[in-house]
Write a sequence for this structure.
């Protein structure tokens, strides 16, 4: 079975739900505690054995490319000031030369279009796709979402989509899959629909933003067919591919935060701060006090 070596990160969206912050700062660069959102997602990809990072960017997203470059002057200053812990962390997360690629989407025509823009960089091999605004927090002592998907992929092959359960009244907000028989640590996907009408969902399993896809998806995306809200939808292309190739669902049991929304972003900051040994005790009591004061008003 072919190894999953490359991951695509579509960062070409406009982030309109986060204006005015995203007028000049890409939403992927907003910080959760002390790291940009994109760093968490890249960490998840590297933990899963990904060797090459492909970013599909857009206008005003150049800062993402700079972020993944070596900052030689900063490193020299950190050496001068004896800040060795900070320096070694920056060096540890620095991608090796030649292991990042950036391409421009030019126009934000939808997620399917952004993925198609990565076709030449991915080439003819299966790849991972991670939506950078969806932050995953794995359960304690468990591997990250993409690592678990890669494990499933080596058992089943095909295409893998990570899913989570939502409340039945929320299914119209998401891409929803229909669940077939169980296989290995996942299940067969028998259908999928992007944002079904209320009461018409196949299940309450929604697509959470992590995928392993076969390169045949590019041939379908090449047709540039528009779907829901006149955008080129990845779900529509996956549905067509599902007619020819197997798709499996991986049920991720950790927490997920939609950092493209204000509520998800604030929750992510609190959850990730509470998960850190250096911050948990310091943040816990002030948070409780804040909530008590709010309730007393
Ligand atoms: P979203 O719909 O959440 O992103 O797309 P958006 O359009 O930036 O957000 P809002 O709704 O205006 O606030 C999910 C992911 O797909 C990427 C986004 O960057 C995000 O990571 N995307 C979306 C693209 O790269 N290109 C697109 O044309 C659309």
């Amino acid at each position: 079975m072919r190894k999953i070596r490359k991951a695509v990160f579509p960062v070409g969206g406009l982030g309109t739900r986060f204006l005015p912050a995203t007028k000049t700062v890409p939403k992927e660069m907003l910080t959760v505690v002390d790291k940009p959102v994109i760093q968490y997602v890249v960490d998840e990809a590297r933990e899963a054995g990904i060797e090459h990072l492909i970013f599909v960017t857009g206008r005003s997203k150049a800062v993402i490319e700079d972020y993944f470059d070596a900052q030689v002057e900063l490193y020299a200053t950190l050496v001068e000031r004896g800040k060795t812990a900070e320096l070694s962390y920056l060096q540890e997360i620095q991608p090796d030369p030649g292991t990042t690629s950036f391409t421009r989407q030019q126009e934000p025509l939808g997620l399917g279009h952004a993925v198609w823009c990565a076709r030449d960089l991915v080439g003819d091999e299966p790849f991972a796709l991670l939506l950078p605004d969806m932050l995953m927090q794995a359960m304690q002592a468990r591997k990250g979402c993409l690592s678990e998907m890669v494990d499933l992929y080596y058992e089943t092959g095909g295409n893998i989509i990570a899913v989570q359960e939502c409340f039945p009244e929320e299914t119209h907000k998401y891409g929803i899959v229909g669940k077939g028989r169980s296989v290995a640590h996942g299940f067969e996907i028998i259908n999928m629909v992007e944002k079904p009408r209320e009461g018409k969902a196949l299940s309450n399993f929604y697509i959470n933003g992590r995928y392993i896809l076969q390169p045949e998806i590019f041939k379908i995306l090449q047709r540039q067919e528009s779907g829901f809200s006149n955008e080129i939808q990845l779900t529509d292309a996956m549905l067509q591919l599902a007619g020819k190739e197997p798709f499996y669902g991986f049920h991720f049991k950790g927490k997920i935060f939609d950092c493209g929304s204000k509520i998800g972003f604030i929750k992510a900051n609190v959850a990730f701060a509470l998960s850190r040994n250096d911050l948990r005790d310091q943040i816990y009591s002030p948070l409780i006090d804040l909530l008590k004061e709010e309730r007393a008003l």
